[in-house]
Amino acid sequence: MSMMIHVSSTPKELGAQAANAIANLLNEAVRRQSHARLVLSTGASQFETLEALIGLDVPWEQVEMFHLDEYVALPESHPASFRKYLKERFVSRVPLKAAYFVDGEGDAAGNIAALSRELMKEPVDVGVIGIGENGHIAFNDPPADFDTDEAYKIVNLDERCKKQQVGEGWFPDVDSVPRQAITMCVKQIMSCRHIISAVPHDVKAEAILHTVTEPVSPQVPATILKTHPDWRLFLDSQSAARLLSL
């Protein structure tokens, strides 16, 4: 078990530090095995990290990217679509070897099966895994399923998770947030060789406090990250505030 906590003064500085760590790990993987596999999360907390990452020296032509989660039955044209987010903010801006997306439209079960087969061909080198206001990782809301061996599954979103999406400006109100999403499962996330969590902003301070100080529990899903052999947590002064005040 190895947890490293980095605290920056601003979200931009946090993003730069997290991006450097991601780039270094990808470059190490490419040197070791001639390619790298990356899982990316989305949301407002990842803006600065992704912006910094695309500017770094990484042989993107040798990197495969996988997508962490997506809403069920939400069209890609919707402003809240995570496929749209990743294509606009990352995939269209670096020449990746391949990009594999979670698709919640049409035959969701078939889409999950195809994506799972692709993902499970080889280990993932770097998982960039955010932490939600309710302590979720991906859309594994509390109480999270720590036991399933599935790579992805459909889950029901809890109320606090929906409120976070409204608070970040993706939807006008809670009733507009889809009831379900497809998420990468906890065991699959934990199988990444390295995990980077970039978690800025004061709305995450409570979740960070619980994640770091509470025992590992499905009630605070992010606590499982503490059992990973290489988990690096990047905070800013606001998200770290409650932790630093102990």
Portion of residues in helices? 25-40%
List the secondary-structure elements in sequence, H or E.
Answer: EHEHEEHEHEEHEHEHEH
Number of domains: 1
Distance between the termini: 23 Å
The tally of beta strands, per DSSP, is: 10
CATH architecture: 3-Layer(aba) Sandwich
Return the average pLDDT rounded to an integer. Answer: 96
According to CATH, the fold-level topology is Rossmann fold
Radius of gyration: 17 Å
Query: Order of strands side by side in the largest beta sheet?
Result: 1-10-9-6-2-3-5
In this structure, how is the largest beta sheet organized?
7 strands, parallel
User: What structural class should be given to the helix and strand makeup?
Assistant: alpha/beta
Please report which band the strand proportion falls in: under 5%, 5-15%, 15-25%, 25-35%, 35-45% or over 45%: 15-25%
Low-confidence stretches: none
Q: Give me the number of helical elements.
A: 8
Shape: globular
CATH class: Alpha Beta
